[in-house]
Amino acid sequence: TGETKKQRCRFEGCVKTFARPEHLKRHENTHSKERPFPCVVPCCRRRFSRNDNRKAHYETH
C-alpha cells in the first residue's frame, strides 16, 4: 500500500511524527538549546535554531 512509515521524535515528552527523516532531524534540532542563527537587525536580540525561522522573523521587522 502507499502508506508512509512515520518516524517519531526521540525527545522525551514530544509526540510529533514525520514522514521524512530530514524533517525529523530538523525538528529534533529545535529541542536543542543551541540557537546559532541570530536576527540580523542590530537592536534585535532574538536567536533561532533554524535559519528559515530567522528569515521569517526578519520579515516582521
Automatic annotation (TrEMBL):
The keyword Oxidoreductase does not apply. PROSITE patterns: ZINC_FINGER_C2H2_1, ZINC_FINGER_C2H2_2. Pfam families: zf-C2H2. It is found in: Nucleus. Transmembrane segments: none annotated. The keyword GTP-binding does not apply. Residues 7-36, 37-61 form the C2H2-type domain. GO terms for cellular component: chromatin; nucleus. GO terms for molecular function: DNA-binding transcription factor activity, RNA polymerase II-specific; RNA polymerase II cis-regulatory region sequence-specific DNA binding; zinc ion binding. InterPro entries: VerF-like, Znf_C2H2_sf, Znf_C2H2_type. Keywords: Metal-binding, Nucleus, Repeat, Zinc, Zinc-finger. This is C2H2-type domain-containing protein.
